[in-house]
């Protein structure tokens, strides 16, 4: 290749083959024509280009869910943020029964500025674990007892935070 980036013409070999005598050579030297065009630089050693479009976040999830109802989403956790958890907290029923941790809505509200960021961090680190449900029994009309499980406040908050974020608003 020349310095200006253009290819040379046909290449004629300047060296002779080994063992060339009176008999036909064991190997031959071939001429080759120049390439039709310059070889493009390889992109294999570079990372793929990033998509220039910005993510639409939950709005994009809602639009996709509405446009393609048969589509199944595999991971939406990255869309759950502190703002959604705050919103979900205020949508919880304030007088709901307390779970096994005995924390009421009003108790949790007292340190809400600390609780929500802590909960958000545990969710995204994978450290959040649901607590066991509190089991109570309610008497039925026929005299039998019906078991009821009552979730703790955070166990009500986490799934509600996800639903608040991805519910399709029609």
Structure commentary:
By secondary structure, the chain is mostly helical. It has a domain of 87 residues. Helix content is 32%, strand content 7%. It contains 5 helices and 2 strands, in the order H-H-H-H-E-E-H. The protein has a two-stranded antiparallel ribbon. Helix 2 packs across helix 5. The two termini are 63 Å apart. This is Group II intron-encoded protein LtrA. InterPro entries: DNA/RNA_pol_sf.
SSE diagram, text form:
Layout: H1 57-67, H2 82-91, H3 105-110, H4 112-125, E1 134-139, E2 145-150, H5 153-166
Region (Disordered): 1-59
Protein name: Group II intron-encoded protein LtrA
Biased composition (Polar residues): 12-21
Question: Which structural traits does this protein have?
Answer:
170 residues, mainly alpha, two-stranded antiparallel sheet, 2 strands, 32% helix, rod-shaped, DNA/RNA_pol_sf, Group II intron-encoded protein LtrA
